[in-house]
Amino acid sequence: FFFLMIRRPPRSTQSRSSAASDVYKRQGINAEYMGALNLKDLRLMEGSNRTLRKPKFVKVKDLKPGVHGYNVYVKVSTADHSEVTRQDGTKLRICECLIGDETGSIKARIVGDFADLIKADQVIAIRNGRSEVFKEHMRLEVDRWGKVTQESGVTISKIDLENRLSDTAYEMKYVNLKGRQ
Question: What is the model's pLDDT at position 150?
């Protein structure tokens, strides 16, 4: 069993717009903050000095299967673009590519609008990528939560095609935990 709790506006307020402003008032956010356009403006209004941390970029050799949140600079070796039609009739653009840096290479799958950015011999930055095991082989994926950008300030002279992380086969291993079946 699980229960879904729905937050209702206070009984003293009958209209939705005033109910929303009451919620903001109870959270300690003034009505002028509701017009803030982005997070930076909101932080400036609050007087907070918290800043975003710079992302930590790793090398391809440091990628591990099943881990999410990777940031990596890579050079595209090959790129194969395709388009798949979903059941609702919309098209999904997919790019299957081989990417890497001077420490290794890996297959990647990039879906959505970012697939159009991928071209051979181009350096890209993958932010919030995830490494998944697909058909027993690891690949780097970028979905709607990730981001791909073209990087002109980063140079990768060659890709190490000898250390292909996607060539390693992984198998599912079931582990029996104490007291669990």
Answer: 86
